[in-house]
Amino acid sequence: MRRTAVLLALLLLAVGTVAAQGVDPPERPESAVEEETGGEERPSGPEEVVIAPAHLTNTVRVAALDRVFDLQATDHPNDAGGSVSLAWDFDIKDEVPDSLAVIRRGPSGVEERIATLGGISTRYTDTTVSDGDSYSYWIESLRPDGTPAAVSDEADASSSAQWIHSGRVAMLIILAALSLIIIYYIETAKRGKKLYIREIAGLAAVDDAVGRATEMGKPVLYIPGIMDMDDIQTIASMVILGRVAIKTAEYGSALMVPTARSVVMSVAQEVVKESYLQAGRPDAFNREDIQYLTDDQFGYAAGVDGIMVREKPAAIFMLGTFYAESLILAETGRSVGAIQIAGTAMPSQIPFFVAACDYTLIGEELFAASAYLSREPKLLGSLKGQDAGKLFFIILILLGVIAATIGQFWAPLSSVADFLRSLVAVS
Amino acid sequence: MNWEILGIWIGALLSLSLYSFLYRDNPFYKFAEHLFVGMSAGYWVIYTIENVLKPNWWQRMFPAEGGFQIVWVIPGIFAFFMLARIVPKIAGLSRLALGMIVGAGAGLGMVSVFQTNALAQVEGSIISISAGSAFEMFSSLVLVVGVVSGLVYFFFSKEHTGIIGGTANLGITILMVAFGASFGYTIMARLSLLIGQSQFLMFEWLPTIPRILGIGGGA
């Protein structure tokens, strides 16, 4: 416990130090563009952002706008390159520009109009540039007949790709710190220290469910959800499938795994095959029991329902990502009298599983299942490390709430709350 | 032949065949189920070719402006590895492709899941519980207590006894209340789907019966 406290204190200190240095919003004009365009990915095409300056509204747009000034061209931040951000302001005079033309001179010296924007646009992102080449930009404000009313100064820029997303540095630090804590506990567990894990009712029943199927001479049905292998819950489900398959191999029960994705089918076949080898029963592995039905959500539900009513499994596992088909499957499973263990991290589907299944793994219990079932030191250490992460977040929330609450009456604490928020804010 | 009426009848008969499952498994349901699964599997094959393979791989390897982008051969090699599963001697190659899919999925998912499910939730939970009206203060308090006690429920390495046990019980109670509300909300949405399908049967399919039989002057 003392070690946990020390680790958490170090974590807080490290995060606080880095956040204080790195999460302040940049002062350059493009930071505003970044905030308003999400700042995550480079836009797929030219992008116009129309933001009226503070001194302009629809009602005063009759005021004249004829000179663009303070044009700034900068590399678009936190992207994979290939884009330049432009930002400018207006002078108000007697003539109203109908539109604005963005002109670019490339490395070959050719001038071209790359965009025509609305008259009150103040920023533009050019996504058609080549990294490393220098480009010059200027803005022409146009009259209704298309003739230029005024021309801004030129601004030069070149684009480049960034390896580090500056808005995600705090997240990187927190993730790295949590990973270090998890590695620490994994190493501790490997050295033989016994790590406690509380009982999870749904998982304690896995043995009973497979045993029941064996006694009844009926198969076990494992449904890994309807998402592909890039989904974290599906990955967790495959790990649990491995443990369930070891049980079915040991008990000699048939295991059926209908899938909604071809890649999930391939992974499931490999996982089950490995488990049967591990259990010393490679002869009992039947690849045909792990089959692909269809990618279609309700087509898959109809197919699995058919399997349930015809094969009448004694135990059904529904572990993974589920959507609207969850209740259809759980109700049918219940109607055939199977013992049902379900688990998902989809908040909208958990209620249906709670209502229709014997045991339900709620949210993170799904991810803890593999550690619980295997009791492998590596996984138990990982679970302990994740608990340390939760403790860190609880402390952060409580400190933040106290600071924000008292900060309403005493300003300095309000800035502490803002700082704590900035630690976890990701742009 | 009136194709519109034929379409309505096919839709209605397949709907009724699927609904017949509510009674028990029967040949009508089996027919509709196999048709549904088979057609949707076939549909997804074409969908994947047209919307995934062509735009994301083939057209990038052979762009419209001409040329050959050799880097896109790499995904093709991994695709070949996946298909190697059907040849027992080289089936092991598929593990390379599967490993890359699972590894990339976990790595990419870690960032987005951690951002949305952890950091954004923590940021949203750092609020003042003394702001606004009495009801707003109560709501803020419930939110903070719910988040903290819910997190405590998901402690796996501590026994749920004493203060931790009491907090965890409060957490799961708040979670169950939330699930109950979500259950009712979602059931209402499902009922609207049922009503939509019932309206199709009553107001589109049933009126065609007298028209086919030539009685009652049609719908």
Characteristic key phrases:
heterodimer; A: Immunoglobulin-like; Rossmann fold; six-stranded parallel β-sheet; elongated; B: 219 residues; mainly alpha; 3 domains; 0% strand
Summarize the structure.
The complex is a heterodimer of chains A (427) and B (219). With 427 residues, chain A is an alpha/beta fold. Chain A has 13 helices and 15 strands.
Account of the 3D structure:
The complex is a heterodimer of chains A (427) and B (219). Chain A has 427 residues and is α/β, with parallel strands linked by helices. Chain A has three domains: 111 residues, no CATH class; 117 residues, Immunoglobulin-like (Sandwich); 176 residues, Rossmann fold (3-Layer(aba) Sandwich), CATH 3.40.50. Chain A has a six-stranded parallel sheet, sandwiched between helices. In chain A, strands 4, 5, 7, 8 and 9 form a five-stranded antiparallel sheet that branches. A four-stranded antiparallel sheet of chain A has the order 1-6-3-2, with no helix packed on it. In chain A, helix 6 links the parallel strand 10 and strand 11. In chain A, helix 1 packs across helix 13, helix 6 packs parallel to helix 11 and helix 12 packs antiparallel against helix 13. Chain A is elongated, with a radius of gyration of 30 Å. By secondary structure, chain B is mostly helical. Chain B has three domains: 68 residues; 56 residues, no CATH class; 79 residues, no CATH class. Helix content of chain B is 75%, strand content 0%. In chain B, helix 1 packs across helix 2, helix 1 packs antiparallel against helix 6 and helix 3 crosses helix 4. The longest helix of chain B has 44 residues. Chain B is flat. The mean pLDDT of chain B is 91. The chains are: A alpha/beta (427), B mainly alpha (219).
